[in-house]
Design brief:
The complex is a heterodimer.
Chain A: E1 4-7, E2 10-13, E3 19-25, E4 31-38, E5 42-51, E6 54-57, E7 65-66, E8 76-78, E9 87-94, E10 104-105, E11 109-113
Parallel strand pairs in A: 2-11
Antiparallel strand pairs in A: 1-3, 3-8, 4-5, 4-9, 5-6, 7-8, 9-10, 9-11
Chain B: E1 3-5, E2 9-13, E3 18-25, E4 32-37, E5 44-49, E6 53-57, E7 60-65, E8 70-75, E9 84-91, E10 97-99, E11 103-108
Parallel strand pairs in B: 2-11
Antiparallel strand pairs in B: 1-3, 3-8, 4-5, 4-9, 6-7, 7-8, 9-10, 9-11
The chains are: A mainly beta, B mainly beta.
């Protein structure tokens, strides 16, 4: 089954404790992205990757890191989480490089930073 | 820069028709997308327009006017399960989409 898998689905952590949210896709997609979604602000892009070893900042990259060592995986790293990073996070993949670049989203990770 | 505008909330009655509007400004243009998102779930793809005109897909249709930077999503024969947030997204020159804040549609009996 074609899917984007992100883990964990729920995470409660404390300020400053490094964490990683994993994302994996099995559709051989070129593009992968991370978004955060907050009430009233919609989906905002954190980082995106157009290919292996190619990553770019989105609209809200501060406090986050990503890596794309393999085509299928695109982990999101919070080196020192802060309460303002409490949010709902979505990973997405897409074929890339074509106009009908449909985004396929993972189920989401709800993060609370205390 | 990129800018997407859509209404925050709309309400409609079961069985009725509703039109959700979206205006956009992008650097380059490679298509306009609509996604549906139920509360607590991931967005899912609904429709795509790259040329002017209407695309129909069952109860859902989407319209695009590139010259006006305008799109709408039309939902017919509304059902309670259509209560969701509808996200308008425009692809810019890099094929990376910019999403609007979403329109929360409430369908009541």
């Amino acid at each position: 089954e074609a899917q984007v898998t992100q883990n964990p689905r729920y995470l409660i952590t404390v300020t400053g404790k490094k964490l990683t949210v994993t994302c994996s896709q099995n559709m051989n997609h070129e593009y992968m992205s991370w978004y955060r979604q907050d009430p009233g602000l919609g989906l905002r892009q954190i980082y995106y990757s157009m290919n292996v070893e190619v990553t770019d900042k989105g609209d809200v990259p501060e406090g986050y890191k990503v890596s794309r060592k393999e085509k299928r995986n695109f982990p999101l790293i919070l080196e020192s989480p802060s309460p303002n990073q409490t949010s709902l996070y979505f990973c997405a993949s897409s074929p890339g490089g074509i106009a009908k670049n449909i985004q396929y989203f993972g189920a989401g990770t709800r993060l609370s930073v205390l | 820069g990129q800018n997407i505008d859509q209404p925050t909330e709309m309400t409609a009655t079961e069985g009725a028709i509703v039109q959700i509007n979206c205006t956009y400004q992008t650097s380059g243009f490679n298509g306009l997308f609509w996604y549906q998102q139920h509360a607590g779930e991931a967005p899912t793809f609904l429709s795509y327009n790259v040329l002017d005109g209407l695309e129909e897909k069952g109860r859902f249709s989407s319209f695009l006017s590139r010259s006006k930077g305008y799109s709408y999503l039309l939902l017919k024969e509304l059902q309670m399960k259509d209560s969701a947030s509808y996200l308008c997204a425009a692809n810019g020159g890099s094929y990376i989409p910019t999403f609007g804040r979403g329109t929360s549609l409430i369908v009541h009996p």
